[in-house]
Specification:
alpha+beta, elongated, disordered C terminus
């Protein structure tokens, strides 16, 4: 489970970054994105990177994904989201503070997952009943 912090100029770019991570990065969100104070997010990222940021963010959000930290970093490197994405490891000193602020934060408005709610395709050949078909070969590297 990895904690991801997204900071950007506006809500639209942050929402597009989350959607890109889910669609193209194959990351599975296990919590809804929560609103984080932009100044807190900037200071946290500065402490992680050990350098000053060129631009300050106006909007920030954080959420948990099912994948571990290393896999999350590798998947995010493959895509080019329109916002600044940081995977916050539990090794960093701001991890606990960010996790505590997520508990009391409100849900980031506008996010809707594009993933299906069921487990896979539905077999309609059985009369009267629906049977979900699981494909174990898809995303097999994501299993734990």
């Amino acid at each position: 489970m990895a904690l991801i912090l997204v900071r950007g100029e506006n809500n639209s770019k942050v929402l597009n970054a989350i959607a890109d991570m889910e669609r193209h990065g194959n990351l599975n969100l296990i919590s809804k994105p929560k609103v984080i104070d932009a100044n807190f997010a900037d200071s946290l990222v500065e402490s992680i990177l050990n350098s000053k940021l060129r631009t300050k963010s106006k909007v920030a959000t954080a959420f948990f994904v099912k994948e571990d930290t290393t896999l999350s970093i590798m998947q995010i490197k493959k895509i080019h989201p329109p916002a600044h994405v940081v995977v916050v490891s539990d090794e960093y000193e701001g991890y606990e503070k960010l996790q505590e602020s997520l508990d009391s934060a409100s849900v980031f408005q506008g996010y809707h997952s594009h993933r299906a709610k069921n487990e896979g395709m539905i077999d309609y050949s059985i009369k009267g009943n629906k049977r979900h078909i699981k494909n174990e070969k898809l995303n097999s590297y994501l299993k734990k």
